[in-house]
């Protein structure tokens, strides 16, 4: 019984493939008949395709609407961009203390400064930095150079964080530095 069932499934799948192949060779199915809508691959019968062509002789109405929306969106985007630039200039004129900021996280208002050990070295990671990361890195270099603390740092732009590698844990020093610079949001 199982062998018979397997034979019928194989016969069905191969016959369906042959039918689709013969339909494309005979011209019953073309690339225009196959459309991708809402994530589903659908085939349209030839009659429906002719009805659609009669109904919309200049093409797909969705494409025309999409082009119109793209044109409108460009004007809207330019207006929003101008408003955003004006707001940024107003914030700069208010004179924030530094070009970067580190927001407090959680209900307790802690800073996102974490300590970690990696390959025998102490790592201090400052996360969720808003603004200019390289300016914060340069300020940290200048601050720790005055205190004679040696460390290596790197900026990870993609995750907006700075990783500091040193033989000493610097988590408390970095938190105090950010508090003194008033770079906390």
Task: Write out key terms for the chains shown.
185 residues, extended, alpha+beta, 51% helix, 5 helices, two-stranded antiparallel ribbon, Translation Initiation Factor Eif1, 2 domains
Task: Write a structural description.
With 185 residues, the protein is α+β, with helices and mostly antiparallel strands. The protein has five helices and eight strands, in the order αββααββββαββα. It folds into two domains: 15-93, no CATH class; 100-181, Translation Initiation Factor Eif1 (2-Layer Sandwich). The strands form three sheets. It has a four-stranded antiparallel beta sheet, covered by helices on one side. The radius of gyration is 31 Å and the shape is extended. Mean pLDDT is 70; it is low at 1-13 and 32-42. It holds the Pfam family Img2. This is Large ribosomal subunit protein mL49. Belongs to the mitochondrion-specific ribosomal protein mL49 family.
């Amino acid at each position: 019984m199982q062998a018979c069932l397997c034979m019928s499934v194989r016969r069905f799948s191969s016959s369906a493939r042959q039918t689709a192949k013969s339909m494309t060779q005979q011209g019953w199915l073309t690339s225009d008949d196959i459309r991708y809508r809402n994530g589903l691959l659908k085939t349209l019968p030839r009659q429906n395709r002719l009805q659609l062509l009669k109904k919309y002789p200049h093409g797909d109405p969705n494409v025309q609407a999409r082009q119109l929306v793209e044109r409108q969106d460009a004007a809207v985007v330019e207006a929003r961009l101008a408003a955003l630039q004006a707001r940024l200039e107003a914030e700069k004129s208010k004179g924030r203390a530094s070009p970067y900021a580190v927001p407090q996280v959680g209900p307790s208002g802690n800073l996102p400064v974490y300590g970690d050990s990696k390959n025998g070295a102490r790592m201090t990671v400052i996360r969720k930095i808003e603004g200019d990361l390289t300016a914060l890195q340069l300020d940290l270099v200048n601050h720790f150079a005055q205190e004679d603390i040696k460390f290596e740092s790197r900026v990870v732009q993609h995750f907006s964080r700075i990783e500091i590698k040193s033989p000493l844990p610097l988590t408390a020093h970095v938190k105090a530095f950010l508090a003194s610079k008033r770079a906390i949001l």
